[in-house]
Specification:
This protein is of the alpha/beta class. The chain folds into 2 domains: 285 residues, TIM Barrel (Alpha-Beta Barrel); 90 residues, Translation factors (Elongation Factor Tu (Ef-tu), domain 3). Helix content is 26%, strand content 26%. It contains 11 helices and 21 strands. Strands 1-2-3-4-5-6-7-11 form an 8-stranded parallel beta barrel, surrounded by 6 helices. Strands 13-14-20-17-16-21 form a 6-stranded antiparallel beta barrel. Strands 8-9 form a two-stranded antiparallel ribbon. Helix 3 crosses helix 4.
Length: 395
């Protein structure tokens, strides 16, 4: 069975990264009714361009309308569903108002993981209702997934952040800040450090351990087991993540889905995944119940690399694979690894090959100065330039 690799697209930059890395499909949200309200997301007028990008690369488009919907929003919701119909291959939802409208306008729909489908009877119900696919609850192990996958097409998460509440129905953000996680506005209180206070007022501050912050899911070490379960799609979480994150993660799982990797290749893949943002890795519920080792010790991530903005390409010298750059911050040196990030193509990881200013070759250029910088690939005008800083250099 061919497994679909489904990637997040929170912006045009991450959409281009996902497509370039080999995603079979992308899922994305609009400004309304999306569980990632703080992602850049798209407007309805963006969808023709999204469609052109996806269609030219044979990539499917799934729109997420997966929040709770209130009565005063139904009219707006229906207008959105009608307008997006020409562009999407399916809508990911769970509120019955959205399901009802999908059926009314004959749009395929997938049941969101927010519905917490965790048993065969529920799967049969949604299949009878007309769902084309179910994104299963994240609390399931491999055997439970295998059983439900015999009933209808299912989708499982393969990689990315896990909510402290697992399937996301958390009220901490709403309680403390009136920002509802169930409306896509979670402020991620669980990622912060906490104190334990007893009834006498004695305090214990937990300096390293973050008891409420789950590590990220990573199925690469056991992905062959997932591939044998007859799942229709494997999903990468991350509509709030960066283009380089999406490109790296999708690339790794593209290779793992297409063929069986050796142990060395799996270890190499894990090293690539560790370079981009992560909170440490866990197998989630797939291999058994999580333990204390499945909670993160870092609020700011355990990635091996981070990027620092230095400037923007003002002019392109294509014949020289170079660009005229004004340094807004920091400095850039010959030999630096960099990201070129723009809206015309996928994020590019490359190196600085040479620097020149005033007709002279330089080893580096710093903030407030302008220079011609050569790269391993040709930049585009307005590309943002970020140097890549290794973790040991940060520390």
């Amino acid at each position: 069975m061919v497994i679909e690799l489904l990637a997040p697209a929170g912006s045009f930059q991450t959409l281009l990264a996902a497509v370039d890395a080999g995603a079979d499909a992308v899922y994305f949200g609009l400004k309304e009714f999306s569980m990632r309200a703080f992602a850049k997301n798209f407007r309805i007028r963006d969808l023709p361009r999204v469609k052109r990008i996806c269609s030219s690369n044979n990539v499917k488009m799934y729109l997420t309308l997966n929040t709770i919907v209130f009565d005063n929003e139904v009219e707006k919701l229906e207008k959105i569903v009608k307008k997006v119909k020409p562009y999407v291959d399916a809508i990911i939802c769970w509120d019955f108002s959205v399901i009802s409208l999908c059926k009314k306008y004959k749009i395929p729909f997938h049941i969101s993981t927010q519905a917490s489908v965790a048993n065969s009877l529920s799967a049969k119900f949604f299949k009878k209702l007309g769902a084309d696919r179910i994104v299963l609850a994240r609390e399931l192990n491999l055997k439970q997934i295998e059983k439900i996958a015999k009933i209808m097409d299912v989708e499982c998460f393969a990689h990315g952040a896990m909510c402290m509440a697992i399937s996301g129905r958390c009220f901490m953000s709403e309680h403390f800040y009136k920002r509802s996680a169930n409306r896509g506005e979670c402020v991620q209180l669980c990622r912060r450090s906490w104190k334990i206070i007893d009834e006498d007022g004695n305090e214990l501050r937990l300096e390293r351990s973050r008891l409420l912050s789950a590590k990220d899911l990573c199925t690469l070490p056991f992905i062959e087991k997932l591939k044998k379960l007859n799942v229709k799609a494997l999903k990468i979480e991350g509509r709030n993540r960066s283009p380089e994150y999406v490109k790296t993660v999708v690339s790794v799982y593209r290779e793992a889905i297409d063929r069986k990797l050796s142990q060395k290749e799996i270890q190499d893949g894990l090293l690539r995944l560790e370079k981009v943002y992560n909170r440490g890795f866990s197998s989630g519920f797939y291999l058994g119940l999580p333990t204390a080792d499945d909670f993160s010790e870092s609020r700011y991530g355990e990635q091996r690399e981070r990027k620092e903005f230095v400037g923007k390409v003002l002019e392109v010298l294509r014949a020289k694979q170079a660009g005229r750059i004004y340094l807004n911050a920091g400095k850039i040196k010959a030999g630096d690894e960099v990201y070129l990030l723009g809206n015309r193509r996928s994020v590019q990881r490359t190196s600085v090959t040479w620097i020149e200013a005033g007709g002279k070759k330089l080893n580096e250029v710093s903030k407030g100065h302008e220079a011609i910088v050569g790269f391993g690939v040709s930049p585009f005008k307005n590309d943002e330039v970020y140097i890549i800083v290794k973790r040991n250099e940060v520390l």
